[in-house]
Amino acid sequence: MQFKVQLSITVVLLTSLLIITSAVFAQNDINELIEKLGQNDFRASMTLQRMGRDAIPALTEALLDPDYPNHLNVIYVLDRMKLEEAIPTLKLGLGFGPKVREAAVKALVKFDNLSIGELAAELLVEDIDYHFGVASLISASSHNRVEIVAQLLNNLDFAPDRPEVVQRVAYVIAMVYVEQDDLTRAAILDLLSEQAHRSVAYRSYLRMAQLARGLGIFAEAAPYSVADQLVECLKNSNESINNQIVAAQALSIIAPTDPQAIQLFVELLVNAEVESDLTKAAVAGLEKAGGLAKNYVSQLVKAVEKLPEDAQWRLARVFVESGKIEPSVVEFFISRLASSNSQETDFYYVRILGAIGSEAASAKQQLEGKLVKAENDELKAAIQRALEQIGR
Question: What is the pTM of this model?
Answer without folding.
Answer: 0.85
